[in-house]
């Protein structure tokens, strides 16, 4: 597997440390594959993550958000006294992290047919939306909001 060294960029890029951390994390994506998941764009500002969690109950799964990182952790309690002839359903513990863009919020999470479905929405604050400022001959403070699409 090829690796890319981003260290030369660190000396000339100021304030982009997070960008390079994300690029390095993207290289490690192939290392972990459990549990499988889908990320779906529902519209311009709504997204949905579906994670296959067969055999897990809501009590065995923890979902946390901290500083633009969504962490999904599953702890499966071992059932004593079971003897398996074949074990094809993986019930191992896991921890999966998703990096969220700025202003993306979790709107809810639910179990549906063996899938954990997480609803996300991007909500840009009014102060960050583009606005048009009228220029007059005299000093005036007329500010109006213009329609815009999120980046």
TrEMBL record:
Keywords: Stress response. This is Heat-shock protein. SUPFAM superfamilies: HSP20-like chaperones (SSF49764). InterPro entries: A-crystallin/Hsp20_dom, ACD_IbpA/B, HSP20-like_chaperone. PROSITE patterns: SHSP (PS01031). It comes from Bradyrhizobium manausense. Belongs to the small heat shock protein (HSP20) family. Residues 28-138 form the SHSP domain. CDD domains: ACD_IbpA-B_like. Coiled coil: none annotated. It holds the Pfam family HSP20.
């Amino acid at each position: 597997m090829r690796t890319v060294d981003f260290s030369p960029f660190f000396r000339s890029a100021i304030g982009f440390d997070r960008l390079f951390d994300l690029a390095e994390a993207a290289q490690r994506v192939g290392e972990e594959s459990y549990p499988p998941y889908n990320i779906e764009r529902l519209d311009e500002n709504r997204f949905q993550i579906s994670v296959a969690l067969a055999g897990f109950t809501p009590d065995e799964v923890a979902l946390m958000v901290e500083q633009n990182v969504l962490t999904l952790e599953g702890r499966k309690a071992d059932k004593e006294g079971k003897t398996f002839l074949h074990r094809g359903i993986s019930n191992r513990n896991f921890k999966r992290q998703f990096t969220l863009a700025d202003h993306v919020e979790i709107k809810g999470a639910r179990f549906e047919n063996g899938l954990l479905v997480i609803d996300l929405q991007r909500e840009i604050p009014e102060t960050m939306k583009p606005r048009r400022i009228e220029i007059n001959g005299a000093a005036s403070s007329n500010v109006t909001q213009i329609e815009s699409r999120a980046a």
